[in-house]
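[User] Could I get a sequence and structure tokens?

[Assistant]
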Amino acid sequence: MDQNLIPWSESYHDVKPTNEIFVVDDDENMREMLAITLKAEGFPVKTFEDGDAFLKAAATRVPICVFLDVVMPRRSGLEILRELRERRYWTPVYLTSARDDLPTVVEAMQSGAHDYIKKPFDPYGLVPRVHNAVEMWSRRERTMDPLDFRANGIREWFRVTPSERDMLMLMRLMDT
């Protein structure tokens, strides 16, 4: 296995992302535009034309982040996102869609999307989001704050959603 490819593991111990970005979109032009833009910024990009191919790769690798289209054949991006969260796969996922109806956006955020990006968008506007994802991974690797929830020594807080983590921290503060 390539040294840059780091498999996901159920232990969550020392999980670090590969330096790849995954782009999942059934529109070939959109995949190509995102890949060119992100590669020009120095990020390796792996593209997928459907959610099933992406999920297969996600079983063995953790990217820096994922750009995931909402409307795709067979399975929607929202279904894929929910499956990722059931697997406790917490890499930042940015959902992209031409749809911007409020219920879809709310569902995306409740399902654990890091952000919702309406198409069409400036592809160079995604670069700061990638840097944000890199910073998120970097924060996870630093010494944890005393308020971080952890049930044991292997960073159990990594298994909860950001909103669940906030709730646990609030409960912990109320207890003290």
The chain is about 40% helix and 10% strand. Residues 21-142 form a domain with the Rossmann fold fold (CATH 3.40.50.2300). Strands lie at 21-24, 45-48, 65-69, 93-97, 115-118. The two ends are 47 Å apart (CA to CA).
